[in-house]
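Write out this protein's structure.
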Amino acid sequence: MKRAYYIDNLRTTVIALVIMLHLAVTYSSLGRWYYNEQISHGFWGLMFFATFQMFTQAFSMGLMFLLAGYFTPASYDRKGFGRFVTDRFKRLGLPSLFYLFVITPFVCWVMVPAPEFIRGAATFGEFYRNYIISGGYKFLGVGPMWFAVALLAFSVFYALVRAVLPATGKSNPGDKRTTYAILAGLVVTVAAGAFLLRLVFPIGSIFSGMQLCYFSQYVILFAAGIFAYRGNYIERITPAMGRACLAAGLIAGTAGLIALKTAAGIYDFSALRIILNPPRGSFTGGATWPAISFAVLESFIAVAMSAGLSALFREKFNFSNTLTKRLSDSSFAVYMFHPPIIIGITLAMHAITFVPVAKWAIASIIAVPACFFLANRVLLKVPVLNRIL
């Protein structure tokens, strides 16, 4: 299989976006993160954070699962059931366990010893014992490595299916062009699944460290990545179609989020205020028009941005050089270790007085290259980390 360098570069870009997303949570306090700075926000600054975070959340991790699904069939074809499952556990399971048992305790005891993490423990030994007994606070300790845990589960399920059902070969790229109808069907499928899931797991709820409210997108886009590989569907997205999808995702998606929140009364432009805690059922879940509309809009953004960015990177960034290779080789280490790195940076910047959006921008400019540099030049030089990463 010829290496698709554009997918490596796209994955690197998405991970950089995830770092910026977590920095936005730090400075906006909109969402769960280890450390939140309590800064007063104006209406426009808070609106920027709310829109940026919701828009990025709508497609970033779904795109990661799509790309992971794209690489899965070829990996299984090369290795077979036993080697594939063993390799997945080494590459996904071991890093997740390391994060659960090493990184989270370090962050919660040394870096941000907040009462909700310490829980009255007088010593690290007491804290760690309570942490282990609680199952890593019921697996909240996996932090952003929930992605690796979920991907491991998806991969094992795929391997079990492949062990029973034979795979078909890749289709001829000229057989059929990816159409808007295919993408529209994907939007409807993801939205229907999200609506049904949120009847049981509303947005904001966490089950064993997982936000299951988003898993319709993750499961379906992972499966879409598998079919995209077998049918060459990413290669069949024309440049014009990719540009249209990207424009629709960026413009219509952003405008739709603002319009939907305004219609639901969360953005009040007349009083220039934002309702930070809207009534349950407005967006979180249930058979309400905001919940249904948001499920559809979120799914549209996920599919449009995934198709648009895939086509853009295939057309413009399908290359490899020393820099892109180092970034790609470091990407998983960056994803795994970025929390303590960006927490350290934001704690060091705590005394600096700027408006929150400016502070976020400065922190992003510092943190993104710092994470990749430390991953490539420090973390991957440690033998035990190099083996599991």
